[in-house]
Amino acid sequence: MSPQHTSPTPPAPDADGASTPDKRTAAGPGPSTAPSPTAGTRPPKLRKAAYEKELRRLQAELVEMQQWVRETGARVVVIMEGRDAAGKGSAIKRITQYLNPRYCRVEALPAPNSREQGQWYFQRYIEKLPTAGEIVIFDRSWYNRAGVERVMGFCTSQEYRRFLHQAPIVERLLVEDGILLRKYWFSVSDEEQIRRFTSRRDDPLRQWKLSPMDLQSITRWEDYSRAKDEMFVHTDTPSAPWFTVESEDKKRSRINVITHLLASIPWERVEHTPPEIPERPEETSTYQRPPRTDFRYVPDVAAALEKHPSGGGRAGKTSAEAGKSAKAGGNGKNAKAGKNGKNGKAGKNGKSGKNGKNGK
């Protein structure tokens, strides 16, 4: 089961609003030159039950693929590129969710520091490449130079041209050395990107994902489209082709990219016998566990959820009170968020055992 490469097809418009030479779409059982029938449009959302069932099956195969990578000493590099809010991060999360983190790394490099700026451009990425038995996923990669650096003027024209010349050479060397290199471009429309930006802005848990650079990309949509087209012209090569992931629906894109990745890696199932769990030996009389009062315990604020299953706010308040007054057990070693009592359970006054030993 070896990767397949296809001959160039005529340029076709994609969701990014630009023509992409030799565009390959990551969908179905393997590489394909046919664009998704939903390209440039918002497809119907994938049913949750169908999505979760298929995702679970694919994640089980990813675990088996990683076992093959470890056993054979293969080296896998996956590059995830695309517009801001195109769904790269959420796809990476689903890919790595059940993989052994000792043998799978996600690299999301920040802007280069002063030392790195004086190095060969590819140097800091080369340092992150996998050793035998590893999978490395780049959440953005050396292609920053062809995208954001080009559009925002963070590199000179000479540096940009040098990158377009060197990138195919570097990637060919990686492939010739045996690295399994896969490059994915997540394609999203301008309307969907705005929807996702708005969702991030309104969600306190995800506001950190919306950067000033993301917002600037809104006003430079066509500049990014031209930069992407130019990047594909120079770096979509037979040895390291680009595959486009239609990402108007994130769930569809996750299923498609994982399916494609599994189909493009020549992995095989490795016979694996689960280890036997030995029986625990009988306890001896030589060990005596210290009394519980000798230890400090984390306050059991979760107990409030049992009494008030829908009272998330109350539980949160209790947690804050526990952290404020207990400080790892208040004044007693075994205090559970009681202020001065040994066993007070996160209560505020008398019922919590503020000054009593066992108040609840």
Write the layout of secondary structure elements.
Layout (H helix, E strand, L loop, with lengths): L11 E2 L5 E2 L27 H25 L2 E8 L5 H9 L7 E4 L6 H4 L5 H4 L7 E6 L8 H5 L4 H20 L3 E8 L2 H12 L10 H8 L1 H15 L6 E5 L3 H15 L38 H5 L4 H14 L35
Parallel strand pairs: 3-5, 3-6, 4-5, 6-7
Antiparallel strand pairs: 1-2
Plain-language structure description:
Residues 46-271 form the Polyphosphate kinase-2-related domain. One of its GO terms (molecular function) is polyphosphate kinase activity. This protein has 360 residues and is of the alpha/beta class. The protein folds into two domains: 12-264, Rossmann fold; 313-360, no CATH class. 38% of the residues lie in helices and 10% in strands. It is built from twelve helices and seven strands. The protein has helices at residues 48-72, 88-96, 114-117, 123-126, 148-152, 157-176, 190-201, 212-219, 221-235, 250-264, 303-307, 312-325, and strands at residues 12-13, 19-20, 75-82, 104-107, 134-139, 180-187, 242-246. The strands form two sheets. It has a five-stranded parallel beta sheet, sandwiched between helices. β1 (12-13) and β2 form a beta hairpin. The longest helix is centred in the N-terminal third of the chain and has 25 residues, at 48-72. It is globular, with a radius of gyration of 26 Å. It starts with 11 loop residues before the first strand and ends in a 35-residue tail after the last helix. 32% of the residues are buried. Residues 1-13, 18-23, 28-33 and 328-360 have low confidence and may be disordered.
